Amino acid sequence: MFSRIDLETWPRRDTYFFFKDFADPFFNICANVDVTRVRSLCRQNKLSFSLACLFCSQRAANSVAEFRHRMLGGDVVEFDEIHATQTILNDDQTFSFCYFENAADVFEYDKAGSASRERYKQLRTFDVESDRIDLIYYSVIPWVSFTAFKHASRMDNRQTVPRIVFGKTFTDGSMVKMPVSVEGHHAVMDGIHVGRYFQALQHEMSNLGK
């Protein structure tokens, strides 16, 4: 479900109209997050680290309204809830996409997400919920602790689904950290909103399972 935003009273109205027709309206921010607790909880409970990070990210993204904003025709809409698709690695080292629904807790999410990954590995498709925009597109690059990221694109400047990437974890003193890349469409979100997402993501990861 979604509601339409009144563009005439929307505080971001001028920013929206400034950026919406840019040929390349996308911006990207990369930052490291502390995943020490996530890694520990996953090892203690035999949970998937990747799915636990996805769970935390979905909770964080849903808490920031701008991550639920999409351009739809000539409107801007706000979805009540967003879900996720993510790349999965196939046995032959190719990749395909998988759909993940939200869940009440990380244990339920891990169980449902593991089943979903096995099902979509058999399908081996890029056509996953492709008619929907109430999603975030995720990728995982577990081989590189990147400091910057650029997505492949058809350069569709009306595509407002955010893209988030998780990188390879690394040790920083007593902490385990992971690079996270966020790409957003500047017509529907700004740097402050990505900053709020990172704050919410760190909160979710630091309090996972509490």
Summarize the structure.
With 210 residues, the protein is of the alpha+beta class.
Structural category is alpha+beta
State the CATH superfamily name: Chloramphenicol acetyltransferase-like domain
Low-confidence stretches: none
**Number of discrete helical segments:** 5
Gyration radius, in Å: 17 Å
Q: Tell me the name of the CATH class.
A: Alpha Beta
Total strand count, please? 10
Shape call: globular
What is the share of helical residues?
Answer: 25-40%
Mean pLDDT, to the nearest integer, reads: 96
CATH topology grouping:
Chloramphenicol Acetyltransferase
- Give the total of domains: 1
CATH architectural arrangement: 2-Layer Sandwich
Termini gap: 30 Å
Layout of strands and helices, then pairs:
Elements: E1 2-4, H1 13-19, E2 26-34, H2 36-45, H3 49-62, E3 69-72, E4 75-79, E5 83-89, E6 95-100, H4 106-123, E7 135-141, E8 163-167, E9 170-172, E10 175-185, H5 191-206
Parallel strand pairs: 5-7, 7-8
Antiparallel strand pairs: 1-4, 2-10, 3-4, 5-6, 8-10, 9-10
Task: Describe the structure in your own words.
This protein is of the alpha+beta class and 210 residues long. The chain has one domain: Chloramphenicol Acetyltransferase (2-Layer Sandwich), CATH 3.30.559. Helices cover 31% and strands 29% of the residues. It has five helices and ten strands, in the order βαβααββββαββββα. It has helices at 13-19, 36-45, 49-62, 106-123, 191-206, and strands at 2-4, 26-34, 69-72, 75-79, 83-89, 95-100, 135-141, 163-167, 170-172, 175-185. Strands 2, 5, 6, 7, 8, 9 and 10 form a seven-stranded mixed beta sheet that branches. The chain has a three-stranded antiparallel beta sheet with strand order 1-4-3, with no helix packed on it. Helix 3 (49-62) crosses helix 4.
